[in-house]
Amino acid sequence: MAVPPVIITAVPTAFTRTGELNIDGTREIFRKSATSGVDGAFVLGTTGEFPSLSFDERGRVAEVAVEELAGKRCIIHVGAASAFEVLRLIDQAREAGATEIAAITPYYLSATDAALLAYYTAISEASDGLRVYVYAFRARTGNFVSPELMGKLAALPNIVGAKVSGESLDQIAAYRAAVPDEFIIYTGSDRDVVHAVERGAQGIVSGVGSALPGPFLEAASRIAAGASRAELDAAQAAVNDAVDVIGGNFASIKTALTLQGIDAGYVRMAIDEPDDAKLADIKRTVQRFGALAG
User: Fold this and answer.
1) Among candidates 64, 71, 80, which has minimal Cα distance to 30?
2) Burial class of residue 288 in the structure, from the number of CB atoms within 10 Å of its CB (0-12 exposed, 13-18 middle, 19+ buried)
3) Tens digit of pLDDT per residue, the chain (294 long)?
């Protein structure tokens, strides 16, 4: 049997309609990931609307995540625009009991490779006892991690892998060629769950998978079983069908969770809620994958 890809869910954070943090609903979301068969959860990332949370709110969410995901992997995102803030968030995550963290590149201002290397060196030095993932997402941050830079980051103590979002399969392959075999690469692109493994990724961090883990787990199962090309393509097509409807829209992800009886709440950031037609599409998709609440 082949090694199955790791399936990590990028979990949303629940808010009330007026924007307050809904910690009980957030706890329900984490509990779903803990019991759904996936390998773990990526907490307080892009899907978790991290830029909209205060320092104290991020700490509370981290505590609940570590508690609810006991026995599963729990990667706490500690990224921020400055290393100063990241170092505070690292201490906070460690106090919450985290053993794995991730940090997105700095954002808003353009950063040179030298500045990015200095940023991650500071993170590396502050992360003894933690496993650290570089979070590369240039579409959201404006800063690109080149393969050459990724190779340098992979050599830093405590940095064990990278979550790569919005990049092509060729870029995944370029990263794989630039880092040691033991360096972990997770794609953040749902449509690449099958093909990214073939290009050197060890798994996926999926927002859609937090609401509908079924098709992702099926794809992983088929990869592990050494399924035929046609079977793998069919598994990827099922993932794509879910992505076509849910996509990277946090409001749609939360709607899909709500349809499963989870108090996923609302978005805090400026994202449109699904209209009636979209809601009907989401409901059909949740029902198709056997997750609709009674």
Assistant:
1) 64
2) middle
3) 578 899 999 999 999 999 999 999 999 999 999 999 999 999 999 999 999 999 999 999 999 999 999 999 999 999 999 999 999 999 999 999 999 999 999 999 999 999 999 999 999 999 999 999 999 999 999 999 999 999 999 999 999 999 999 999 999 999 999 999 999 999 999 999 999 989 999 999 999 999 999 999 999 999 999 999 999 999 999 999 999 999 889 999 999 999 999 999 999 999 999 999 999 999 999 999 977 775
The DSSP secondary structure of 102-139, one letter per residue, reads EEEPP-SS---HHHHHHHHHHHHHT-TTSEEEEEE-HH
204 in a structural domain: yes
Q: Which is the catalytic residue, given 107, 119, 133, 135?
A: 135
Is residue 294 one of the residues assigned to a domain?
no
Cα(193)–Cα(206) distance, integer angstroms: 9
Residue numbers belonging to the annotated binding site for pyruvate: 47, 205
Domains of the chain: total: 1
For residue 64 the two structure tokens come to 């609940």
> Domain containing 137 — which CATH number?
3.20.20.70
72 catalytically annotated: no
Q: Which residues are annotated as a binding site?
A: 47, 205
The C-alpha angle with vertex 107 and arms to 252 and 111, in degrees rounded to 5, equals: 150
* Candidate list 163, 175, 186, 254, residue with the active-site label: 163
Q: Is residue 249 part of a domain?
A: yes
Between CA 42 and CA 35 the distance in angstroms is 15
**Domain coverage including residue 250:** 6-288
- Give domain status of residue 258, yes or no: yes
Residue 35: closest CA among 248, 224, 241, 217: 217
